[in-house]
Specification:
The structure is a homohexamer. In chain A, helix 3 runs parallel beside helix 5. In chain A, the strands form 2 sheets. Chain A has a 5-stranded mixed barrel with strand order 1-2-3-5-4. Chain A folds into 2 domains: 96 residues, OB fold (Dihydrolipoamide Acetyltransferase, E2P) (Beta Barrel), CATH 2.40.50.140; 177 residues, Hypothetical protein af1432. By secondary structure, chain A is an alpha+beta fold. Chains A and D meet through helix 4 and helix 9 of A and helix 4 and helix 9 of D. Chains A, B, C, D, E, F: This is 3'-5' exoribonuclease YhaM family protein.
C-alpha cells in the first residue's frame, strides 16, 4: 500500500494524495492571507499552513477537495505538522474518490444493518420492541450515516451505528456472565441511547450542533420521541416498561453534571452507562496511541481529563 | 383568636385542638409501642411522642385526625417539642374541619384561577399560548391542588399554583424594569416550569414521589408533554417557539447538578431560573424565621445549605 | 441617525467617527510596530490592528482620541474585527466630544441623584439613615461617576449608581410582594453594598484595581468605613442595627468562595445578594445578545460560567 | 427448600435456623443489657434486638453461633428487622454446619483454582508470568479464602478470587472485541490488582483493616511486593514490562482521590480500572435489588453514591 | 499524683474527684429524666449518663460543680464512657478549687504577658507597633483569658494568648531561616490575627458565638478595629503599612472558602496562614493521640477532615 | 559586581555575558526560522526571540552555550523580554564557566553533605537509621546533584538536597517547640521523602520525567526501595518502624488528590507534609517577589493557585 499520513516520520519528505478536511482562510500578522488546513487520509489527519494564498488558491482549495501534496512532516509545539512544498489539484484521469480518504466505521453499513436487525429481533419485550422498531424506522437512514460525536470518538460516517453495535456486543457478554439482567431492556436502551444525535448533530460531514441539540440535548430529544412513539403505538404513558425505557435513555450519561436529569436507578441503566463510557474511552485511547510513536506519550486526550497515554516500546 | 401552636413559649402549658399531621407507630427500647406524632395547625407544626400507646390508641390517632391536646411546650435538642399530658378525640358537636388546621396557599383557589387566566390571556405568542392552555387544561385540577414540593417550601395544598403565581408576578416586574425581554416566552415558561410535579408527586396529602417522578423527574415529564401537546395541536416539532419553550422548562434548575440537562442559554431562561430560586428561598427563610424567637437564630434550613437565619430583636 | 459600529454587517465597508478605547503599541513577529486598537462608539466596541504604525502614529493615536475611520468589518476567530483602510484625526471644525462616543448610564446623573435622594429619604431607621447619608456624602461624587466593575457589566461612567438604582427598584418590588421584610435595612444595604468600589477601583476611565482594592476588597473597605461612620456619629459599635447593616454589606457576595467572609444570615441579606446577582446577569446577557445576530449564539460570557446565549430569530 | 430470611414478607411469623453474624452486647437507656444481632443465612441478613439479655445469654449467643430462631419480620425505619419471640441453641443431633449459612463465592474453590491456573498459563509475557506465579504462590492460600472487601461487595470467603475471576472473564471479552490490547499485561494486572488485600485485611471472618492496610493501602503493599518478586527472580527494576505491571496495579483505582498515586496512562490500565469498577457495581446492585420487593426501591447503596435502585414489578 | 480520668483503662473501677463540664437534663424514652454529663479533670474529659435523676439531683449537679465520682470506665460506640456507681458533693473540708480540674494554657499568664511584651517591643515599624499596642491595650484582659476557639484546639482559658505565642515562636524561626521576610509585619499580623475572637466569642467559660461573631466573623471585627485604631492614632488610611497589616489579618484563613475575603498576597501573609494552620493541627493531633491507647487509632478529628491518627505502640 | 539580568530596568540597553538556558528553533508565520531563547545568569532568566536565524546560528546557539549579548530589556504581555541587538560567542580567552551562570543551591555541596551526615547521625532508631543510610548510599551522588523539581521551586543543581535540609531545619525547630514528637521518625521521613526524585527525574540539566517517574511517581518509587532496603538489611516487613517510615513517605503529599495513596495518619507525617509545603511555598514566593519591582504585583505563580504576590514599596 502507498505510504499514508500516519506512516510519515519526523522530517520525512513525501508526495501523496490527501483530502482537505479543513481549509480556513485567515490573515497573517503581515496582512497576507493564508489557508489553515487539515490534511486527511484513512490513516488520520495532520495540520499545515498554506502561506501567501492567492484568491485563486482560496477558491480552488476548499474543504472536501482531494489534492496532490508535496511536503515534509515536521513538528510544531509537539504536534506533527506538514510543511507544504507544493499543492495541486489531481489530473482529471486520476479517478480519486472521497471514500478512499475519509475514515468510516470498520464494518460495512450493510453488515451493521444486519447486526442491528438481529439485535432488534432478540428483544422479547413487546413495548420495548415496538418502540425501538418505530424509532429506528423514523431515523434509520441517519442512524447508519451519522457520527456518534462531533469529535473525540466515533466522529466519522457510520460512527453512531458502530458505537451502538459495540455497546450491544459488550452488553451481550454482560448478560451471559451475570444473572438477573433484563436483556431486552438493556438492548433496547443501548439501541436508543444515542439515537437523539440524529437530531442533535447536523450530519456526517462538517458536523455541528443544531439549535435543538444546543437547547435540548440528545437525551431530552429522544426521550420526547419515545413518548411520541408510545402515543402513536397506543402504548399507555403509565406503562412501567415505558418508564423504564425512558429512564435508560435519560440516565445514560451517569451523572447529572454530564447532563442526565436523573442518575441511573436501574441495574440495566447503570450497566448501559458503564458500557457507553468504556467503549468511548477505548476508542479515544486507541486513536491517540495509534498516532504516537512507541516509547512515547500521546497528546493529551480532552475526553479523558487531558491524560496522556503511553505507547510501550514493544507494542506490536 | 385562640392561641395556636406557634404562639406557645417554652414550658408553657396549654390545651387546644390540633390536627395530627403524622402518627407513626414505633417500638421503644423497652419494647413498648409509642406514637411519633406531628401536631399541626394553621400556625405551624411541632413534634411530640405519645408513650405507651395502646392498640386502641394506635387505631384512633391516625394521621389526619383532629384531636384535643393538653400538654406543655418543651425543647428537645434545640427544637420545640410537645410533652403530651392527655389527648382525646373532640366531641361530636365540635364541628371541626380539616381546612381550619392545615396550611394552604394564602390566596383562595378561586382567585388564583382568575389570576392564572389573566396571565394566560396575556401570552400573545400563538404557539406558547396554545401549548400552555392545552397543558393547563390537562392538569388543571391538580395544578391548583398540588403542593410545589414534598417539603421545604410551598409544601401545602395549592402551593404549586401559588408558587407559580409568585414567579409570574416577579416576572412582570422584571419585564417592566428591563427592556428586550420576550414576555410571552417568560410567562409561558413560568406557567409550565413545575407543572410536571402533578405527575412527579403523589398528591397534596402525604406527598411522596411517584415512580415516574423518581425515574424521570418533573423536567423530563413536562418536556415530553409539551411535545405531545404540539403533536395534538399540529405544531411542528421544528418550530423555534417550541424549542425555546422546551428549553425554558428543561433548563429552569439552572445547573446540571440540579437536574437540568442543559443550562439556561436564553435570557428568559436564566431569569426564570433566578426567580424560581428566589421565590423558594424567600419562602423557606420566612417560614424558618417565623418559627424563631426574636434575637435567636433559626434551625438550619436544608434547602439553603444548612444556613441558620437570624431574627432581629426588633422585627415587627 | 448615522450608522454605528454595531450596525455594521460582515464585510461591510464604512467610514465613521469613533473613539479609541485602547491603543496599545506592540511589536509584530516581523519586528515592525503596530497598534492593537479597540474602537468604540455608543453602540459598542470592536477590535482592529493598525499595522506598520510609525512613531508619529503611535503618538497621535492614543486611547481617548476621536478618529475618522475608514475600513471593513470582518471576522477573526468568530469575533468581529475591523480591517483598517485609513485612519485620521478629525478636522478642527468637527466639534466632536467624548461623551457622544462612550457608553454611560442610561439615566442622567441628575436624575439618578434625585432617585437616590428619594430612596435615602425613605429609610426610616435612624442608624441606617445616618450612616448611609454620611458615607454617600463622603463618596458622593465618585458614586455617580464610577463604574460598577472593571469589565463585564456596568463598566462605564455612572455604572455604579445605575446598578445601585436597579437593585433598589427590584427591592421595592420585593418589599411590595412579600410581607415581613425590613425595607429600611434592605434599601440601606443596597445603597452601600458596592460603595467600597470607589476605593477599590481607580476611577471611571482606564479602570484598574487599586492596592487597597487588591489587598482588602470592596467588602472590607466599606465595612470598615461603616464602623468609622458610626464612630463619627456617636453610634455604639454594639448597636444591633449597625451589626445588621455591616452583615448586609459583608455577606452580599453570597458565598465565601466569592469573597464574603460570612454567608447571608438575614432574610434581607439573602435578598440583596439575589438581586445583585440577577441585575448583573441580566446586564451581561443583554449586552452579549445585543452584539449577536438573530439566530446565532453569543460569545461566551465569562461572568456567567462561559455560557453562550442564543438570540432567537424573531427577537424584535 | 426451606424458607429463608430473604423469603419472609413483612409481618410474617416464622421459625428457622440461622447463624449469628453479629451479637454485640449493649446497654439500653433503662440500664438493662441487650444484644444487637445480625441474623444470617445463605439468602442474606437481617438485624434484630434481643432485649433483656441475661449474662448467660450473652455468653451463649456469640457471633458465629447457629441458633433456632422464632420471630416475626417487621420493619424499622424502612429496613427489615426481626422481632424475636424466642431463640435457642439447636439440639446436638441437628448437625448444622456453618458453611450452610454463610455466603461464599458461587464457584467452588477447586474450580476457581483451575480457572486461575488456566489464566496464568495464558500469560505469554515472561516477566509478567514469572511475577504473577511468584506472588500467587506466596499468597495463594489467602487469595482463595479472603473476601475482596470489608463490606459492600464480595465480602465473603473466596470473594477476592471470585472478583478477580469475574474481571478476567470480562477482560477476555474485551480482548476479543477490540484489537491492539496487550492481553498478557491486562490479565496479569487483573490477577494482581487486589492481591495486596491479603495483607490489607485481617482475614475472611470479622474482617478488619490491618495496620499495614490502614497506613499503606493494598496498592502500595502489592506494588512493593512486585518489586521484591523481581529482585528474587533476577528481573531488572528498569525492565519496561515491570514498570508497566507496577503501573497497572498502582493506577487501578482510576482517580487519585480514590488512592491511586497515578491515574491510568496505559490502555490496559484504564480498561482494568473500568472492569474492576463495573464488576463491583453490578455485585452491589444485584445484592441490593435481591433484598428489595418488586415495585420498590432498594436501600441506599453506600458504594454507589447512596443511590437507591428500583426493582421493577415484573423482574423474573 | 492521684489517678486521673485519662489514666483509666477499659473496665477499670475507680473513685476520684472531677468537675462537671456539662450536666444537661434530658428525658429518657421511658419518660424519666436523666443527666447527660461530661466529667473533666486536667487530664481530659469523658461522658457519662446519670440515670433516674431526681429533681434534687438536677439542682445539685450543675455544670461547674466539683463532685466525688465512683464508677467504671466502659466503652460505648468506641468512645470511652463512665458508668456511674455513685456521685456526691465533696465534703466542705475538701478545699477543692476549679483551677485544679480544668485545662489551661501550659504557660502562666504572667509569663505569657512577659513574652508578648517582648515581641511587641521587637516590632520596629512605627505604624504596626502603635496599632498593636493600641489594640492589645483595648483587649488586653480578654486576650489573656479567652480561648482561641469554641472547641477543637486551644479551647481553654488563656488558649488565645498561648496559640498566639506559639505562632510567634514559629515565626521567629522562619525569620531566622529565610532571608527577605518583613519581621515586624509578620509579628504584628501574628499578634492581631485572632484578637477579634475576644469579640466573636462570649468568654472563656461555656464559650459560644456572639451575634457579632456570627454575623461578622473575627476577621472583619479586628479589621475594622485596626481602622479605628489608625483613626485614633492619626495614621492615614492610605498608609501602605496599614494596608499590609489589614491584609495580614483579613487573609490569614488562607482560602476564601474559610472566610478570608482575600487570599494571601504577601509573603508574610502566606507564612502567617501556614503557621496558624500548623499550630492548630499539631494541637489537635496531640490531644487526640493523648486520648488514644498505644497501638490504636484515635477518634476522628473533625478539624482535620475526620482523619484518625495512629499512636504507635512504642510512643514514650 | 557586573550588572546582571535581574538588575535591568525597563527599556535599559545593555551588554553582558549570559548562558542560553533554552534555544528552540521555530518557524515564524512568514516562513523564516527563528530561535526562541531563554537567557540566564545567576540573578534569574528572561526570554527573547532571535529573528531570522541562519542555519549556522541554529547550530552555534544551542542550550548550554555562553554568549555575549547586546540588547534592550523590554516588556511583552507584562513579562520582561530581551530585544536582541547582537549575539556572539565569547572570545576563546574569556574563560567563562557554566557554574558562574546557573543557579545552584545557596550552600556548597560539601557543606550540605556535612549537614546531612549530622542529621543521619542523630537518628537514634535503628531501623530508620539503617534504611536511611542504605538508601542515601545508593542514591548519594544524585541526591546532592538533582533538583527537587522540574520547575517552580528548587529546580537547580543541588535543589533536592537543599530542600531536604531546609525541611530538616524546620523539623528541628518543631521538635524543640512541641513535646511528644518522634524526632528520629520525622527526620528519617524528611530525608527520604523526595529521594525517589532521583529516579523520577532525568537529572539536573534539561530535567524531564523518566518513564518510571510518569508511570509510578516518586512516592511509590522510594516506597518500594525502602522495602528492598529492609530485605537487604534483614529487617522484617512487619516491623512497625518500617510501616511508619513507609507511611511517612507515602503520605507526604498530604492529599490523595496530590498523589498520596493514604493521607497522613501520624503526627509526624502531618508535620512533614506541612513543612514540605511551607518550604516550597516560601521558595516560590521569594523567587517571584525577587523578579518584581517594589510597588508591583508579581506574575501569577502556578504552584500557588495562580496567585500574584505584592512586593511592598519599602521592602529592603
Amino acid at each position: 500500500m502507498a505510504k499514508q499520513l500516519m506512516d510519515l516520520t519526523e522530517n520525512e519528505e513525501f508526495e501523496m494524495f490527501v483530502i482537505l478536511k479543513k481549509a480556513e482562510k485567515r490573515v497573517a500578522k503581515n496582512g497576507k492571507q493564508f489557508l489553515a488546513m487539515t490534511f486527511q487520509d484513512k490513516s488520520g489527519e495532520i495540520n499545515g499552513m498554506y502561506w501567501d494564498a492567492s484568491d485563486e488558491d482560496v477558491e480552488k482549495f476548499t474543504a472536501g477537495t482531494i489534492v496532490h501534496l508535496t511536503g515534509k512532516r515536521e513538528s510544531y509545539l509537539n504536534s506533527p505538522q506538514i510543511k507544504i512544498s507544493s499543492m495541486s489539484l489531481p489530473n482529471a484521469d486520476e479517478h480519486l474518490v472521497r471514500d478512499d480518504f475519509v475514515q468510516s466505521a470498520p464494518i460495512k453499513i450493510y453488515d451493521m444493518k444486519a447486526e442491528i436487525d438481529q439485535i432488534v429481533f432478540s428483544i422479547t419485550n413487546a413495548t420495548c420492541s415496538r418502540i425501538v422498531r418505530f424509532l429506528l424506522k423514523r431515523h434509520g437512514e441517519a442512524f447508519f450515516e451519522y457520527p456518534a460525536a462531533k469529535s473525540n470518538h466515533h466522529d466519522y460516517e457510520g460512527g453512531l451505528a458502530f458505537h451502538t453495535i459495540s455497546i450491544v456486543r459488550l452488553a451481550e457478554h454482560i448478560v451471559d456472565q451475570y444473572s438477573g439482567i433484563d436483556a431486552p431492556l438493556l438492548y433496547s436502551g443501548a439501541l436508543l441511547h444515542d439515537l437523539g444525535k440524529t437530531v442533535e448533530l447536523s450530519g456526517p460531514v462538517g458536523t455541528t450542533y443544531t439549535l435543538a441539540g444546543n437547547l435540548l440535548g440528545h437525551l431530552s430529544i429522544i426521550d420526547a420521541e419515545i413518548v411520541e412513539a408510545a402515543d402513536s403505538l397506543g402504548i399507555s404513558q403509565d406503562s412501567e416498561d415505558l418508564l423504564l425505557l425512558r429512564h435508560m435513555v435519560l440516565s445514560h450519561h451517569g451523572l447529572k453534571e454530564y447532563g442526565s436529569p436523573e442518575r441511573p436507578q436501574l441495574l440495566e441503566a447503570e450497566i448501559l452507562h458503564d458500557l457507553d463510557e468504556m467503549d468511548a474511552s477505548i476508542m479515544m485511547m486507541k486513536r491517540a496511541i495509534n498516532q504516537t510513536q512507541p516509547g512515547e506519550f500521546s497528546d493529551k486526550i480532552f475526553g479523558l481529563d487531558n491524560r496522556r497515554f503511553y505507547r510501550p516500546t514493544k507494542t506490536e
